[in-house]
Amino acid sequence: MKRKHKGRKIYKTKEKNYYGKSPMGKILSAALTVLLIGGIGFIGYSVAEPVINYTQHKGDKPEEDTTSAAETTGGTVPEGSTSPTEGAPKAPEKFTAAGLVPTDMVNAAALQTALSAVPRDAGIEYVEVPLKARGGKIYYATTNQAAVACGAVSSTLSLADIVKAIEDSGFKPAAEISTFCDNQLPTYLPLAGYVTVDDGSQWVDNDPQHGGAPWTAPTSEEALTYITDIIGEATDAGFGKVVCTDIMYPYFRESDLALLDEQYGRTDRFLALTSAANLFYEKSVSGGASMYVGVSAADMLRGNSDVLNAQLLSANTVVLNIDTDELKKGVSDGKMLYEFEGTPAEMTEKCLGFLSDRLTDFNVTVRISGSAATAEELKTAKDKAAARGYSSFVIG
C-alpha cells in the first residue's frame, strides 16, 4: 500500500522589525548589501561559464543572444551595428549523396559504370564511396604498410583517380570508412584486436556471420593509429566528408566476456567508443573535412549503438543506414522481434518510427540501401524520410 503524500509542511515565522539604527549602522548595512550582491554575481558567472563551455560540442559556436538590436535600443538600431542574424548559429549541414558499394571500387571501369548510374534528378551533391569496408578490405591503392601486409588492399584505384572520376561526373567525393568491424588488421597485428586475459591469445568472433574472425578494438593504439592514418589519406586527397561506420563492439556473449578484460562488460564501456569517435573527428576536421558517425539501423534495434552519446561526441551528425536487405530478415534484440515487409519506403517509415526518438539529440542523415531495391524505390523511400523531417539522405 502506498503511503499517502500529505504535501510539504510550511513553517512561518513572525517578521521582526528593527528600529533606531544609527547612521553609521545604515551605511555599513548598505555596504555589506552591495558586496553581497557583487559576490553572488561573481560566483554565478564563474560557475556558469565552464558549465556552458562543457556542454557545447567541440567545434560548435556559442549560442548568440537572439534579442534584436531594436529591442535593446527602444526601437532604433544604432548606426554601424550588426544585423540580429549576423553571427547566429549555422544550420546543420545538409548532406545529399549517392552511396556506392565495394564492387563498384575494384577498378576504373566499375567505378565509372557506377557513377553513370547515379540519378541526376534526385538533388544529389556527393558520391559516398567505401574506402574501407565492413570486414576490413580497403578499396583504394593505399601504401599503408599494415594494410598491405594484412592483405586488405582490394583495388588498384588511387585516391586521386577516385576523386577525379567523381568530380568529372559532376559530384563531390565523400569517404565511408568502417572502423572496428575489421577482420583483416588483427591477423597481422594481434594487439590491434581483442586478446584473452589468461594467456594473451587472440579472441575471435564465433558468430556464424563472422566465421571465427577477429575484430579491431577501440582500446588498441595500433587500431586507432591505423584508422586515423586512413582518414588522413582521404582528407589529404580531397574528400570533404568522412563517414566513420562500425564504431561498435562485437556482439559479446557471456562466455566471451569471461575471457576478456572486464572493461568490455562494464556499463561505461561506451567511453572508449566516444573517445575513438572524437579522435576520428579531430583527424577529419584538421584535414578540412566534416566527420559523421555512421550507424546501422539493425544494430540500433539490437541495442548495439553504445557510441551514440550526444553529450560526449564531438560529431553531432549521424548517418542512419536502413539496409533493407538486412531488415527484411527480421531483427531481434533478444526480447522483441522486429519484422519488416513491403517496399523500401514502407520499411523506411516503419524503421524511423522505431528509432526517431533515440536520435532526437543529433542531426540525422538517412541512408536507404539494399541490393534488391531499384533506384526509383530508393528515391521514393528517400521522399518518405523527408516527409518525416529528414531532408539529408544517402541512397544506395
How is this structure best summarized?
This protein is of the alpha/beta class. It has helices at residues 23-55, 69-72, 108-116, 145-149, 159-168, 185-188, 221-237, 254-257, 270-286, 297-302, 324-327, 344-355, 375-387, and strands spanning 96-99, 126-132, 172-178, 241-245, 290-296, 317-323, 331-332, 337-338, 363-369, 392-395. Residues 1-90 have low confidence and may be disordered.
Describe this structure in words.
The structure is a single chain. This protein is of the alpha/beta class. 35% of the residues lie in helices and 13% in strands. The chain has 13 helices and 10 strands. Strands 1-2-3-4-5-6-9-10 form an 8-stranded parallel barrel, surrounded by 5 helices. It has a two-stranded antiparallel sheet with strand order 7-8. Strand 9 (363-369), helix 13 (375-387) and strand 10 (392-395) form a beta-alpha-beta unit. Helix 7 (221-237) runs parallel beside helix 9 (270-286). The longest helix is centred in the N-terminal third of the chain and has 33 residues, at 23-55. The radius of gyration is 28 Å and the shape is globular. It starts with 22 loop residues before the first helix and ends with a strand. Mean pLDDT is 83; it is low at 1-90.
Major sheet:
8 strands, parallel, barrel
User: Using DSSP, what is the number of strands?
Assistant: 10
Mass-distribution shape: globular
CA-atom Rg in angstroms = 28 Å
Strand order across the largest sheet: 1-2-3-4-5-6-9-10
Query: Distance between the terminal alpha carbons, to the nearest Å?
Result: 57 Å
Mean pLDDT: 83
Helix content: 25-40%
Low-confidence stretches: 1-90
Look at the helices and sheets and give the structural class: alpha/beta
Which percent range describes the beta-strand content?
5-15%
Number of helices: 13
